[in-house]
């Protein structure tokens, strides 16, 4: 067994290392896009004490990370060339439920061998993708306008429309500023639809992995008072055109796949995204 070095997460420089691994391993069988890691880490303030995160390196290069929360859930990314590390990561995490992409079969086999069971039923997320070659132009009903975020002066309004769409939400102006400071956030990929009164009512934030030329949508939302008017669609298309101009060739998004929450998936499918994978969760056998 090679000499892997484990280090505990200390701050944004370590997130950057996790993003480097996500970028190096990006493919149809990878669960993580570097933008999703930034959003998850920074969308709220005050969460760090809830999390335990560690990275594993070999010869100074990241080969795995694991991120456990206090409710007993584990997310991880492991370079398949270093599968031997899986046992150490699972021992580090304790008795957590573990979520993988369904395509991560070798990792799933390790979990089954260690006595985990795949959960059936309940909420789960699907991964949907779209090629950006044939992207329609955004269009809006009368009275609405579409634009990219300018800079930090938009953080308060941007957080407010997010909170309206996801209510209740812990996203605030302060946490949004944290998102805007994260690599690789770019205001020109963060799009808003405004009402006639100039209030933001829908949004789409896109993160671009320039190396893999793939954009991820995270997050998308519309104020409940303005839904089913094509506003999320317009925000998504505005942001994706901008991403394409910056080199993106394809886009990915995650949405609930179960029938208890169909609206987001239906929105992405109506924009041409298609399901290609889903998350699966494994629980230690003696856990309810
Ligand atoms: C999902 C969400 C962003 C959709 O916003 P929206 O502005 O209403 O979406 P659009 O008007 O652009 O919808 C486009 C198409 O998507 C589909 N769609 C959207 N909402 C739907 C719903 N509740 N049920 C079924 N289909 C739906 C329809 O095909 C719709 O076209 P139609 O209205 O002509 O039938 C919005 O409901 C929302 O903010 N939800 C809470 C936050 C969220 O879940 N965000 C996504 C996860 S990050």
Dominant shape? globular
Note the run of SSEs as H and E. EHHEEEHEHEEEHHEEEHEHE
What value does the Rg take, in angstroms?
19 Å
Bound molecules: coenzyme A
What's the story with the biggest beta sheet?
A: 13 strands, mixed
* Number of alpha- plus pi-helical segments: 8
Portion in strands: 25-35%
Overall number of strands: 13
CATH superfamily of the largest domain: Gcn5-related N-acetyltransferase (GNAT)
Tally the structural domains: 2
CATH architecture of the largest domain: 3-Layer(aba) Sandwich
CATH topology of the largest domain: Aminopeptidase
Output the structural class.
alpha+beta
Task: Tell me roughly what share of residues is in helical segments.
Answer: 25-40%
Distance between the terminal alpha carbons, to the nearest Å? 34 Å
Indicate the low-confidence ranges by residue numbers: none
Oligomer type: single chain
* CATH top-level class of the largest domain: Alpha Beta
Return the average pLDDT rounded to an integer. Answer: 97
């Amino acid at each position: 067994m090679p000499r892997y070095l484990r280090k505990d997460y200390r701050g944004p420089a370590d997130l950057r290392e996790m993003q480097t691994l996500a970028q190096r391993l990006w493919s149809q069988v990878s669960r993580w896009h570097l933008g999703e890691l930034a959003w998850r880490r920074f969308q709220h303030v005050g969460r760090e004490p809830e999390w335990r995160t560690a990275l594993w390196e070999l010869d100074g290069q990241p080969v795995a990370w694991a991120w456990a929360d206090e409710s007993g859930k584990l997310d991880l990314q492991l370079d398949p060339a270093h599968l031997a590390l899986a046992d150490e990561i699972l021992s580090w995490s304790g008795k957590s439920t573990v979520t993988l992409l369904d395509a991560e079969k070798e990792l799933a086999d390790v979990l089954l061998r260690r006595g985990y069971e795949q959960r059936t039923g309940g909420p789960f997320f699907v991964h949907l993708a779209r090629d950006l070659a044939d992207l329609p132009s955004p269009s809006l009903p009368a009275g609405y306008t579409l634009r990219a975020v300018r800079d930090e002066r938009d953080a308060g309004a941007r957080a407010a429309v997010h909170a309206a769409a996801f209510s209740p939400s812990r996203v605030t102006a302060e946490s949004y500023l944290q998102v805007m400071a994260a690599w690789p956030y770019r205001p020109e990929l963060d799009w808003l639809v405004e009402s006639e009164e100039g209030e933001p009512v829908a949004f789409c934030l896109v993160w671009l992995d320039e190396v893999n030329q793939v954009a991820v949508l995270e997050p998308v939302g519309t104020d409940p008072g303005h839904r089913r008017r094509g506003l999320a669609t317009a925000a998504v298309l505005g942001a994706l055109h901008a991403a394409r101009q910056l080199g993106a060739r394809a886009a990915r998004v995650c949405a609930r796949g179960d029938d208890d929450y169909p609206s987001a998936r239906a929105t992405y499918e109506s924009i041409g995204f298609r399901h290609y994978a889903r998350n699966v969760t494994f629980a230690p056998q003696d856990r309810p």
